[in-house]
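Weekly sync notes, structure subgroup
Attendees: PM, AL, DS (notes)

Item 1: joint prediction request from the bench team. They want all three components modeled as one assembly rather than separately. Inputs as received:
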Amino acid sequence: MKRWLAMVLVLALAASAQEALKVGVVVSATGPAASLGIPERNTFLMLQEILDRTGGVAGRKVQFVILDDASDTTQAVRNTRRLVEEGAVAIVGTTTTPASLGMIPVVAEAKVPMISLAASKDIIHPVDAQRFWVFKTPQTEELMARAIVADMVARGVKTVGYIGFNDAYGEGWARFFETEAKAKGLQVVVSERYARTDTSVTGQALRIIARRPDAVLVGASGTPAVLPQRTLKERGYAGLIYQTHGVANPDFLRVGGKDVEGTLLPAGPILVAEQLPSAYPTKRVALDYIQRYEAKYGIGSYSTFGAHAWDAWLILKPALERALKRADPAKDMAAFRAALRDEIEATRGLVATHGVFTFGKDEHLGLRFEDAAVMVRVEGGRWKLERTFR
Amino acid sequence: MDATILGFLLLDGLQNGVVYGLLALSLVLVFAVTRVIFVPIGELLMFAPLSLVWLLSGKLPGTLWLALVLGGAWALLARGRGAALPLLGGMGLLLVFFLALRFPPLAYPAVVLLVVYLGVASYRVFFQPMREATVLAFLIMAVGLHVAYQGLGLVFFGPEQFRPEPLLRGDAVVGLSWQGVLVLLFAVGSVLGLYLFFRRSLFGKALLAAAENRLGARLSGIPPQEAGMVAFGIASLLAALSGLLLAPLINAAYFMGFMLGLKGFVAAILGGLASYPVAFLGALAVGFFESFTSFYASAYKEALVFLLLVPALFYQSFRVRAVEE
Amino acid sequence: MRYLWFLLLLLPLGLAPFPFYLTLLNFFALSAMVALSLYVLTGLAGMTSFAQAAFMGMGAYATALLAVKAGLSPWVGLLAGLALSLLLALVLGALTVRLKGHFLPLSTIAWQVALYILAGNLVGLTGGHTGLTDLPPLVLFGLPVDTGFRYALFTLFLLVLLVLALYNLRESRLGRALLAMRGDALAAASFGVDPARLRLMAFLLSGAIAGLAGFLYAHFLRFVNPTPFSLEASIKYLVMAVAGGVGSIPGVMLGAAFFTGLEDWLKDLLPLLLGRQGNYETIGYGLILALILILAPKGLWPMVERYLPSRDPGLPKAEPLPLKSPKGPRGEVVLGVQGLQKSFGGLMAVAGVSFDLRRGEILALIGPNGAGKTTLFNLITGTLVPDGGKVFLFGREVTGLPPHRVHLLGLGRTFQHPHLFPELTVLENAALGTFARTRAGFPQVLLGLHRREEERALATAYGALRRVGLESLALERAERLAVGQQRLLEIARLLASGAEVLLLDEPAAGLRAREKRELAHLLRSLAREGYTILIVDHDMDLIMGLADRVVVMNYGQKIAEGTPREVQRNPLVRAAYLGEEEAA
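Output from the run, pasted for the record:
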């Protein structure tokens, strides 16, 4: 017990001795959401290098304190409290919806602004006393489901099937997609679940095929999204197959190969940045991110998830600059955090990689559907822009 | 449900079931000989195809260094003449891997060797020093290794899945690929091989005797330590080969092994962790059950599969009288 | 001494300026509670569970649902959560407590996985994988327990109460019985413990403690979703308990503190050593666990304990229960055996044996090796169920009753190999005998209402030790005793139990000549006081000098009965023993 106490004290002293602006980052770099969390972590590591080189924000050094939550709520909460305690001016993260929801009471209690990197609309809606402090950068499932359903309607799809992860990701998609589909007159004829670790989804695929939907949506992320699609093809399903933006990484194409040819998915415009029309607002910012990321981590290594983290910084940076004019974190941290929150909420027309952010009193997502979603098709082992919604 | 769907589900259940079966046999064998519930067998199963992918793309996998480090620890623990095996094995491993970088077909035996070496070294370094520990202590150790190996798997191979080329392409019949046929044949071969080994060979018989009775081990002339190494070796070999054959069908990733192992484990329990045939049949039952529940109630599949244990345990609880001398 | 645990409450005061460490304290307290639930289950009762997180989940979801969906007070949620965890423990326990060894942990894995999936998929009820948000804070006497500081005080206070309650449990008839049952269910049953029932009770208690931790978890995070109640979480708690030392309360507390701190410590240290690219925490976690298990197989605490002063509990001073109140006339039949039969796989071990045992006599049961004497013992005491025949105790039929029921009627036994509990003191071993004569149940024991009864039980045990001449060793650990002393201790345990009919299985085996004389003297004086003794032994000199009557068995059958002299002259007996000598 004594040693533990001593350790605690040493840590506490170390934490108070530094002067840089601390930004707390919680990501799921291990555990089930690692496929999304690792590019986010990499983006912050890259940002740290850039900021060290260019001298930070408004002449102040910035330090990202990055903690892994192993895709676990308890750890996310622990990390958040720790970051708050270590004097983080804001918290970015985390990757998964449940863990982000768990962090909300913590940041609200400590009055620290938070920018979540998770999908669900529940994180920022409704903007109540707690969510007053919470913003997020990724498109909601609701927004992306709108894109999918719009595309399905345009293609004359009448009946759809759904198969998704048996976790928060698959559940969120099932909820918002099925609501949106029904609202637009589509019939959801079958809704199945599978586990990320499953080695076979034959049963689910057969059930889907037996109901003969015109299209199937796979609500899964990363490479495990390949298995249902491949099984459906092998069992002779000939309809359209949609994926979610959770698969928008190069590994999906690598593992999927020929089996995922022709897949349709909604994505942030950054996925096909170079194919965007030059008038597309986010094109330049997105290309800039891709070029930096690939320079550090290798050609073809970028994914759209890391870009959510980048967007969070794009929002945070000017907000920090403005907040620094209003309050001094060294003197009054609480006032600075409050000012920072106000300045984040005051963000208007900020062009980022995934869209244009305009926050407001009751709007903590800030993305417009028209800029933030495009439909993409897999063609020849590459992402191909299918349509924009502008 | 029509006959086609029934046929597909049965084939699917069979293909999964035999893999659970091989894992169940491995778990029963290891448990009988060493009292260790070999939880990290799933990680070893995944290490084989993942290492193969790395080797075939011209990189040395991190698992090689892990094996060599553990081999070094093994040699230190064994000292003297006992150190010859880990040292020679380690050097052999290194040699085969460097050769495999030049001659890709060598990669297959190389990763099998790697996984077997890793399995045996794990026993010697982690379990053997605990010797007379309780089943619970062994179990916790096994869980610790599972956690560590899974973490290492993420560091070595990243978070995503990989799909090695299948050995055979195309479908044998609709619903069963040639690779699937290969898995079935391998399972039949392994079961036959194990049967012959335990019933016909002197060493196999002695090992069985050792498993039934710790004292019997000394009488039959096999030191328990050696019996344990052989048991872990056989288990790792089965895991490595299953992993290599299965990976093209299921896509291998660091996180996929645990569930496979756990299902094999369910089957092993159905066999009371003692009976080989019942464990294998139990595994087939798990496979079929899983296939049908994924058709009827996919969201609750895992829950139902694990609850399959309850009637089995209920049966056991009526059979066993708690108080015995 | 144990009240020093209240010092834990000073921690939140000292750490109040550092909210994060208050958070850690809260997590420590919650983990420690779950680890304590494993102390009850594994440390005391010798069972293992991989479903402690599921029990937590029961507590957490019950209060979350009632508070969020029905708007009820969290205290109603607490009751509901405890009820739900108890219910789960009851179902799970009823199915599995009879199973031996590894089946219990394995079946808990199954329940754990199944419940996790249910929590994730009953979206309408539980909020699914996304979880339930906006739980209300706890309110205590009008004061909201909503800050880390207040919560830490609250949870630590409950933790300390729990620790004290568990110390009470350990130092009670139930604690001793649990430990005894873990070591040796057969011996435990011989002095009145119903192993299945006691296991079930331990399981219920353990489930309720974990449920309480879950309740506290839910109102601390004010958010619930399934991941904290997964198999991985259960494994983590088990690891904490075992690595710290699951056999003692400070051990599991140390384990909880060590691993709660370790995770954050690794988060700081490993990136410095290995860079930020990888995530090495879990690897370090696994390897540290492996090291602990190899270097300190009983956990960290025994290594620490060596350096702490040990404390002498002192001898009991209370008024003892009477050792025995011999009632009824001498010569009355107390145990009747009629035509008992038992076969093992076609081999008749006992083939129709009958005899009567009369109050105040010493009856010896002799016969060559393999004659079926021990089997007969086991049939009489209920350890084995006979294939045929009847057993009467004090005129009541007890055929086929389980051992603990037979014991309650006044019959006690010793074992061929002494069944003692080496980690308990001699006094505690003897006090085990009083189990059936004392009443305090789990609620009384946990609340510490059993103290007077406990004092009397210990005094009784001390009296019994004096009766057999072991009182000077009362506070030694039983593992220090020589063989002869172990046999005497078993007899003392019998005396403490108040049994009138004593079945002694080879009490003189391994004794030296002088010890045998002392034993004979002791048994004779016990018989004079009205105890009735059935003794099995090989030592003919001892038996012939001691027994009033002798029953001789061979090949499962009674071949002779009578006074020692009559039996010695019996040709069948001589043939049986000569035959054995020839064979030898």
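Discussion: DSSP finds 14 helices and two strands in chain B.
Action: AL to compare against the crosslinking data before next sync.
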